Amino acid sequence: MPELPEVEALRDFLDDHLVGKEIARVLPLAISVLKTYDPPLTDLAGTTVSAVGRHGKFLDITAGELHLLIHLARAGWLQWKDSFPATPPRPGKGPLALRTVLTGGDGFDLTEMGTTKRLAVHLVHDPADVPGVARLGPDPLADSFDRDAFATLLGEVRRQVKGALRDQSLIAGIGNAYSDEILHVAKMSPFKLTTSLGDDDITRLYNAMRTTLKDAVERSRGVAAGRLKAEKKTSMRVHGRTGQPCPVCGDTVLEVSFSDSSLQYCPTCQTGGKPLADRRLSRLLK
What we know:
Elements: H1 4-18, E1 23-28, E2 49-55, E3 58-63, E4 66-71, E5 76-81, E6 96-102, E7 107-112, E8 120-124, H2 131-134, H3 147-155, H4 161-166, H5 176-186, H6 199-220, H7 228-235, E9 254-257, E10 262-265, H8 267-270
Antiparallel strand pairs: 1-6, 2-3, 3-4, 4-8, 5-7, 6-7, 9-10
Helix pairs in contact: 1-6, 5-6
């Protein structure tokens, strides 16, 4: 799933490629992709893109008085095209979900692999009209989101720390992959409770979050949209590396599997050498 660093890189890419250009047409090609119907997508024709923003994992393309909000979900992606075939694509065929064509002939496709369709596109007058945007917590890389603000947020919930990092209503933009990476850098168990965090723990976790995300954004900056997924995968320390050696201590990276996801961690770095039970409601083995 694209998370804050990849979405920020896409925002940067689209800022270079879209701003100042006129939209010719936007074609929805999967019935599940469009989540709003008023205003219609046809209202984008003839408008000029003035900005590309980001709200957590949402891309925000401003054109005229409208905002095209895109959430790529787990299996969605954006593919830039310098030109398109003369024959329009057939709706419902393959992974193609939406096509945006500029008057210059270039533009982008939104695609989604797999059978679970969660890619979402909203056309609204105000980004806050999208429920997923309205409920977002602060951006973890915002200048105003300092260590004390982070401590205040964590103090308001009783959660396992990995779940707290992934909760978009608490902190916007962090998903399964980067929460694993942040916790590895912080040398913290994913099942540690937020209520058990001391001042030093909070400081260590905050610094790990900021440095991990900032480093990932910098690595992704300037990378072509088509290569961002590969860049993300190769930069992971523990996420997606079950059975491989930890790059810090050499211990074997372990996994906890859930019904629809999994987490990875290093026992030596994060749990005092003890493995975590591989169950949804696991707690650190005593």
